[in-house]
Amino acid sequence: MRNTIRIEEEHAIRATDAMCINESKQSHRWYYNIKYLIVGILFGIVFVKAEVVSWFRIQEMFRMQSFHMYGTIGSAVLVGAFAVWLIKAFKIRTVHGEHITFVKKEFNKGQIYGGLLFGLGWGLTGACPGPLFAQIGFGATVVVIPLLSAIAGTWVYGRFRKLLPH
Known about the structure:
Keywords: Membrane, Transmembrane, Transmembrane helix. It holds the Pfam family Sulf_transp. InterPro entries: Sulf_transp_TsuA/YedE. It is a single chain. With about 170 residues, the chain is an all-alpha fold. It has a domain at about 105-165. It contains seven helices and no strands. The chain has helices at about 1-15, 35-50, 55-60, 70-90, 110-125, 130-140, 145-160.
């Protein structure tokens, strides 16, 4: 019983501190993560081939001229929702046997401001933070500026987080 309460308290603290709730406590050697680098590179290649990182496709989406990006994002949402349902329904664990938990987060007005700022940056630059590295790898070196801006924005948020509305 005490262990369950401690876990719930830890989850509540992590949820407010924007840390990963399912963060593994295990440590591995440096080369353990090379498989994730390889998967990331392959994922970037798929993004490039599917034109998901194309500035023109992103601009078409914001101008409501094409369904391509909406279809891609919509299918990703459906696959993600189905995966979460599978994890919950079958109590799937991580590859190391750890429990996967989902904690409800409360809605707040800071999410509106953050979403508007995110969308504005995405629309102006044509670069979502997810595929920035794929865009740079594809040769769109001008995307280094949005990458540096994303890093700076993350730092600013971390620095002033306690002063911001949550």
